[in-house]
Design a protein that fits this description.
alpha+beta; Phosphorylase Kinase, domain 1; Aminoglycoside 3'-phosphotransferase, Chain: A, domain 2; two-stranded antiparallel ribbon; 10 helices; about 15% strand
Length: about 290
């Protein structure tokens, strides 16, 4: 991986600094990610093809600012966001990594609970954005049930049908789920959610302070974020205990994890196929 010299020169000019070292950072599956170093500072640079993912970094910056505006949990500060003739880029402060201690895990749970108390008049968001590399619709709805079906499940189902990844039996179960969904949960006010809260999308800095990164924000049912935390690990019992202490989840939330997980699982079906379709079928079977 290498960064175009012109992009580095543009960043140096806009920040008034001299970049002394550029190092690739592992973990980016969609974007090329680098640590930029000067004599005094470090920065995180994300780069991608501006035509493959139009507006992705602008929307990411909006999501980070939305979370920042709640004054509940930290996010990296965005320093520059822009485009060259062929690339989009996002420059942020560098967060020096630390370790996930008991205290840090509790702080993450508490601060996420505080963020989830920020609400809106409807489910959705004022702009669409991305969930991973797929575009995500945030058209607003009065009820979570309608939003979850129309803006989360149905778009993923359409892609999966186009790719012939679902059987007729799968589609019959999904239609049955649509009919039963209103009776499977109790409505709550919309909550500001991160939207893609797996273990790779939070950081603990060198001082034990939690940060959220790579958001796919919307105003949704807050259990959606909690369900995401259970998919791939990375969150311990102290996180859940702290969250429930500060903003208790409704009774039966553990059983609803399989319901809200259908959206990220279907997204993984569309991106990666493989065993994820079996997880979708298992979840549908458990719910119906």
């Amino acid at each position: 991986m290498s960064v175009a010299k012109k992009l580095i020169n543009d960043i140096e000019t806009k920040l008034g600094v001299v970049i002394t070292n550029v190092s690739p950072v592992s973990g980016g599956s969609i974007n090329q990610v680098y640590q930029l170093q000067t004599v005094k500072e470090s920065y995180l640079l994300k780069v991608n093809d501006r035509f493959n993912f139009p507006g992705m970094f602008n929307l990411e910056a909006q999501g980070l600012e939305t979370i920042r505006s709640t004054q509940t949990i930290a996010v990296p500060k965005v320093l520059l966001q822009g485009e060259t003739a062929t690339e989009s880029y996002l420059l942020m402060e560098w967060i020096a990594p630390g370790h996930t201690t008991q205290k840090a895990s509790q702080a993450l749970g508490e601060q996420l609970a505080q963020m989830h108390r920020h609400t809106s008049h409807s489910f959705g968001f004022n702009t669409d954005n991305y969930m991973g590399s797929l575009q995500q619709s945030n058209r607003q709805h009065e009820h979570w049930c309608d939003f979850f079906i129309e803006e989360r499940l149905k778009p993923m189902i359409r892609i999966a049908q186009t790719k012939q990844l679902l059987t007729n039996a799968d589609l019959r179960l999904i239609e049955l789920l649509y009919q039963k969904l209103p009776g499977l949960f109790t409505e709550e006010p919309p909550a500001l959610v991160h939207g893609d809260l797996w273990g790779g999308n939070y950081l603990i800095d060198a001082h034990g302070k939690p940060y959220l990164i790579d958001p796919a924000v919307s105003f949704s049912n807050r259990e959606f974020d909690i369900a995401m935390t259970t998919l791939f690990g990375g969150f311990d019992r102290r996180f859940y205990e702290a969250y429930n202490h500060h903003f208790p989840l409704q009774k039966g939330w553990q059983q609803r994890i399989k319901l809200w997980s259908l959206y990220p699982l279907l997204l993984h079906v569309n991106l990666f196929g493989g065993g994820y379709i079996n997880q979708v079928r298992d979840n549908l079977g458990a719910l119906l």
